[in-house]
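Need tokens for this chain, all 318 residues.
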Amino acid sequence: MDNLTEHNSPLLSLCIPTYNRAEILAQCLERHMEAIDDERDIEIVISDNASTDNTREVVADFIERHGDIRIVYHRNEENIRDKNFFEVFRHARGRYLKLLNDYTYYGAKGMRIMIDGVRRYPDEKTPLFFYMKLRKEPTDCVAGVDEFVRSVNNKLTWISNFGIWRSRLGELADTLDRSGSQLLQCYWTLSMVERHPARLVDIRDVHLLPVPGSKRVPYNFFVPHVANYYTLLSSYGLSAKTLRYDKTVLLWSFVGKKAVDYLILKKECPFELEGSWKILWRHFKGIPYFYMFIPVTLVRDAIKGLRDLGRIIRGKRS
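Here are the structure tokens for all 318 residues:
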């Protein structure tokens, strides 16, 4: 389905692979429309990975109600797993192709940052990435995998951080069979950065819709974010200094918090956790902070809780 078959090529394609999340996808698409507003240089491309729910009907209804925006819908005959990331690109016609989760959307400010970025940096020989909350935004292009990893950390694993110029799509096709199905977008990113200095732009106006009832069996939380992530990095010859830095920051800012929540405090978790401590030990045992992250995280949470309580009390008094 394509509601505007006769249409000039847009500047930006929002590319959304999806599978059995019709309700969430509907909400996500409506939020995108609010952010796009009067901008007509954007298209929305959806690649349905053989969903068994009413995804097709949801998209058809959306197209009928938004006939002034180019919306492309493609449905795979069978589930092709992560290769659907490439499939959605194949159906896009924008100059720049932005990969998105089916539960991620931009506010108007974030959409404007992305459109302006594509216009401001037109050199298609330079990979361009729009990231959610960079560790630090570089003032110039980032050269080499070491510098790139220091800037983005495990945000490499987030689907919605990947994008590519359509003119360079052939570079991804050549890697589909060799990269396997784990963290495909990470493999693509590092392959591009290894060959060319890349430009990073921070988009802070990014939002995630909650995905209810998503028990992901046998998807262990720490497999993609730790085990697969560092297995991938090891093939790119990262310096020992960068690797230690990356692991320390990852423990401090993300993995340590999740380990305390899921493994110590036993908070509700939508993932499988068997073998988690083995994964953490294998990858972090040489990092000094690994032996402190549990008490440090608990203290940080307690301080945050007290601050939140203080705000509530002050609010009631006022």
